[in-house]
Amino acid sequence: MLQYISIKGGAEPVDFETAILDGFAADGGLYVPQSLPQVSLAQLKQWKNLSYVELAFEVLSLFIDRSSVSELELKTILQDAYAPFEKQEIIPLHPLKSRSDTFIMELFHGPTISFKDIGLAFLVNLVNFFLARKNQRLSLIVATTGETGPATAYFCAGKSQLDAWVLYPKELITKEQERQMTCLAHPNIHPFAVSNCPRGGDDLDALISKLYADNDFKSQLKLSSVNSINWGRVMMQTVHYFYGYLQVVDTLGEKINVSVPSGGFGNLCAGALAREMGLPIKTLVAANNKNACLDRIFSRGLFSKQALQSTPSSAIDILIPINFWRYLYFKIGADSTLIKTWMDEFETTGSIQFESHIFEKYSAGFLSYSATDEQTLALIKSIYETEQYLLDPHAAVSLAAADTLKEQLGNEKLICLATAHPAKFPKVIQQALADDVLPDQAMHDSIEQAKKLSEKLHLCEYDVVESALRQAMLSNWQFTHGSDKTDQEKSS
Q1: Could you identify which of 223, 325, 362, 415 might form a hypothetical disulfide with 331, taking C-beta atoms 3.0 to 4.6 angstroms apart as the criterion?
Q2: What DSSP element (H or E) covers 204?
Q3: Do residues 395 and 416 make contact, with C-beta atoms less than 8 angstroms apart?
Q4: 222-231, 415-424, 483-492: lowest mean pLDDT where?
């Protein structure tokens, strides 16, 4: 049986179901499989003409024991998960006219028009499947910089086994993203708007880690998460790298390049692990905005906290790329002692300068670039005027990085990931196009419909968020479970 272990090495191995339902390992580390499965060219040939859902079944089956999820159950979960998507191909690829062999992978055709739908459609349905089988309920808690939250809320809405607590830095996401969470009337959805977070979503991630470390609270409220700390998110996101590769290559075995707008390294981690599994990717581009957390790691070997800067590509305004630790674990020979030492050092000092031999191991096959706000806006305008194709600000970061690194990348086919629909960023699009009138491509019916609905949310300041959140979660648990109070309530 394939088991899952903590990259920090301080927890017992667990089965797939436990890894998914727990989120974090018991020692606070991230779960990974004990070994990565390998994919051969012969397998890629067999997968060449599969649909997205059929391919997802094949890739995920490499990670999931049939004792956890049967073949029929996995197929049913996948079919249900992707039924709400707008496009039959789930993630179409758009060839650019102005750049040869360059494709925009549109990851935004799910219900909340963001790439987070790709991972969360499956993961939330999987979690609910496990809970229904066990007749249990969980409190899911996630922090969002604008995309994870709406997708989590949408897929959790109405699920009888789940409460979803969605934390976001109020001033640092768009109103369109906010309303995707706050306009859901379902009683199991709890948006939590937090004002004055000095480090944005990273502050809220730190709060969630603190709640997880409180074993009594975690046990009482049955805490779990579907943030990208959950292995299920990373695992699911490997699929679109396989899918994109099989769609664009002429000959199996030829290598491609992929540029990924990234902040937390979750999506990019999935691509890196897909390459470790055998997918022929030559270069992965870590496309940053000016917060540059990954550019520092891949150009200078420096993992460090800096002051947060707001940018047009707000969903990747992130300072701490937590999933980098997962990738690093595999690149250094699964040395959990080293990983724990570095994670503890970073927690204490806020900075790690990796030694040159470590830097060489993890940076091979990566390039990085930090796009300026001006580059992002100019590229949105340029592509729209020359091709009548509208990039969202994150896709623009991805393409800007690829354009800048063109000589180093070479002539291989290039896929740039577009991670959100432009309709989620109307002010950025207006600024980029220097036009107050939005083009049709910057509109989406789901966004327009949400403007007509009332909002429901919790509001609080960052300096009181921990106590406010604890009280709200405890009160909701008592109301939901009637007389079944938590131990903490009984002792108070």
Answers
A1: 362
A2: helix 201-213
A3: yes
A4: 483-492
Please name the residue ranges forming H helices in 285-372: 293-300, 324-331, 336-349, 356-363
Instruction: Say which residues have a Cβ less than 8 Å from residue 479's Cβ, sequence separation at least 6.
Output: none
How many degrees, rounded to 5, is the angle at CA 77 between CA 85 and CA 47?
75
Q: What is the pTM of this model?
A: 0.92
Residue length of the chain: 492
State the residue for tokens 């707001």: 310
DSSP state of 349: H
Residue 444 phi, psi dihedral angles, 5° rounding: -150, 140
Q: What is the dihedral of CA 289, 290, 294, 300, to 10 degrees?
A: 140
Residue 378: both structure tokens together: 């100019």
Helix (H) or strand (E) holding 303: strand 302-304
d(CA 174, CA 444): 15
Domain spans of the chain? Answer: 93-111+251-439
- Coil/strand/helix, residue 486: coil
pLDDT at residue 98 above 60? yes
CB 309 within 8 A of CB 318: no
**Would strands 189-195 and 458-461 be described as parallel, antiparallel, or unpaired?**
parallel
pLDDT at 448: 94
Question: Of all residues in the chain, what percent carry a pLDDT higher than 90?
Answer: 88
Phi and psi at residue 160, to the nearest 5°: -70, -20
Q: Which H or E run contains 395?
A: helix 393-404
State mean pLDDT over 377-396: 98
pLDDT for position 492 = 39
What DSSP string runs through 211-241? HHH-HHHHHHHTEE--STTSHHHHHHHHHHH
> Which residue is listed with tokens 């520092």?
296
- C-alpha 191/C-alpha 183 separation (Å) is 10
- Give me the chain's average pLDDT, please: 94
What pLDDT, on a 0 to 100 scale, did the predictor assign at position 482?
A: 61
Contact by Cβ (8 Å): 15, 347: no
Q: What is the pLDDT of residues 15-62, one digit of tens each?
A: 999 999 998 898 989 999 999 999 999 999 999 999 999 999 999 999
469 vs 467: CA distance, rounded Å: 5
Q: Do residues 262 and 346 make contact, with C-beta atoms less than 8 angstroms apart? A: no
Residue 169's beta-bridge partner residues? 194
Taking Cα atoms as reference points, which of 414, 419, 182 lies closest to residue 314?
A: 419
pLDDT score for 409 = 97
205 vs 318: CA distance, rounded Å: 10
Which residues lie closer than 8 Å to 141 by C-beta, 6 or more apart? 165, 167, 208, 211, 223, 224, 225
Predicted local confidence at residue 489, as pLDDT: 40
What's the fold here for domain 93-111+251-439?
Rossmann fold (3.40.50)
